[in-house]
Amino acid sequence: MKSQIKQLHQQLVNKDISCTALIQERLNALKANTNNTVNSLLDTLALDLAAKVDAKIANGDTIGLLEGIPFGIKDVYMVQGTYTTASSDLLKKYKSAYTATAIQKLLDAGAIPLVKENCDSFGHGSSSENTIFGAVKNANNPNLVGGGSSGGSAVNVAKDYTVFSIGGDTGGSVRQPAGYNNVYGLKPTYGRISRFGLMAYASSTDCVGPIAKSVEDIRIVLNVMSGKDGKDQTTYASTEISEESLSNSKDIKTVGYFKNFIESEAIDPKIKADFLATIEKIKAKGIEVKELDFFKSDILVSTYYTLAMAETASNLSRLDGSNYGNRIDDKNLKESYAVTRSENFSEETKRRIVGGNQVLSQGFSDEIYLKGLALRDSISENFENDFKEVDIILSPVTPGTPPKIGDSLKDPHAMYLSDAYTVGFSLGQLPTLTAPQGTETGVQITAARNNDELVLKFANFLKDTI
After folding, report:
1. Domains of the chain, each with CATH number or no CATH
2. Complete edge-to-edge strand list for the sheet that includes strand 392-396
3. In angstroms, rounded to a whole number, what is the distance separating the alpha carbons of residues 408 and 424?
4. How far apart are CA 31 and CA 38, in angstroms?
5. Residue 74 appears among annotated catalytic residues
6. Exposed (0-12), middle (13-18) or buried (19+): which is 80, by Cβ within 10 Å?
7. Which of 12, 254, 309, 385 could pair covalently with 390 via S-S, beta carbons 3.0-4.6 A apart?
8. What interhelical angle do 4-13 and 19-32 show, nearest 10?
9. Are strands 392-396 and 254-258 parallel, antiparallel or unpaired?
């Protein structure tokens, strides 16, 4: 698909459409949608901004490429004056006092936010069912999950309610729902985009990630959001990715894939067959393909969840109803803390906090948490060695297809295992893109750290190959 951003930009410049009409049309579609993607509409803000764009155009002023383009925001990002609920009871009445850096950059570029999008509460889930707003329904089949935790964001893009949406990816939370809904979803290199104003889940792997229907729209949004931020010390200055650079894939000579992913008993036979067929098409283009050895998927999942649960237990310790949130008073302060957290956190969030506290507790931290940190270092080292042999690593996004709504809630362990192919790249802090080709839930394209351009370049090549 061609760039929707560029197409709408040209229509606005040519006065084929007004920005107000464009925004109202998308707001109406969001109001009427039955996929449970909306936590709150930003209609007053959106229409005010649209009127300003129309005034600029009427005056003959030049507008920027993103000016007037409607987008969605996963409901874990601060936007000053708007509800930021994280799809939780605890924060259902919380209004942001400031705006996240990544979102502010989009606002500064003139993009217009329409909606705070439904997601798993605090990002805890892989199906967008752990939410007070009701399960997000898949864009292609409403009986199936929308994926998680950025399910509302992916479905809104797939259904054309938003041109692009901003999700958050900790262990696959952009890439997996993008795969389930057949759109592009990028987890950039860790630190390329500021996390300031994103509610922390696991700080060492949290990433701001765009979801869109074309590689070009991903590139445009990525460029705007990227860059060093004094409010996030993990960020770094990055080079802008040009449109021209993505049209030349000649420097991609070798592609690798992890044979243990494909030989796993957990993989759906059709996803396996389709992935191997994709590998053959890549070979037919003259690119060398190598099988790579990697950690078993169960080791990746256990390592990721050990560290992620530890970090979320620490990050969410601040949410006790004292400073913000839905406080429930009891007979004393300690009991007030306990009942506030017990009543307002979802079952999945409580499961992760309890698991994280166990991992960090005396007698367990050396045996479990420190071992997890050591394994993460080994995983990163493994990736460094792999990228000495190959330019790109290709993998399925998920071992299976989207489950029916309700199934993941019955079996949390199965939900964790659905992340088997995404969490390793999060632990390695690598740029990874879901492309909606190759298998029913797409393929993941991964490159070495800081090589986001190569990921987009290969995605461009892939859309013309398979």
Report:
1. 4-245 (3.90.1300.10)
2. 38-41, 112-117, 70-74, 164-169, 207-212, 184-187, 432-435, 443-446, 392-396, 254-258, 288-292
3. 21
4. 8
5. yes
6. middle
7. 254
8. 130
9. parallel
Annotated active-site residue in 3, 18, 74, 126: 74
Question: Which helix (H) or strand (E) covers residue 5, if one does?
Answer: helix 4-13
Residues 417-450 have pLDDT tens digits of 889 999 999 999 999 999 999 999 999 999 999 9
Using alpha carbons, select from 188, 181, 229 the residue that is nearest to residue 210: 188
Reduced to 3 states (helix: H, G, I; strand: E, B; else coil), residue 400 is coil
Asked if 135 and 121 touch (Cβ cutoff 8 Å), the reply is no
Residue pointed to by tokens 């901003």: 166
Q: Is 314 a catalytic residue?
A: no
Whether 173 sits among the annotated catalytic residues: the reply is: yes
- The active-site residue, picked from 3, 126, 173, 249, is 173
Q: In this structure, which amino acid lies at residue 433?
A: L
Cβ atoms of residues 154 and 178 within 8 Å: yes
Instruction: Judge whether 113 and 103 are in contact, CB under 8 Å.
Output: yes
* Marked catalytic residue, from 18, 127, 149, 408: 149
To the nearest 10 degrees (0 to 180), the angle between helices 19-32 and 43-58 is: 160
Read off the pLDDT of residues 188-215 as tens digits, 9 standing for 90 and up.
Answer: 999 999 999 999 999 999 999 999 999 9
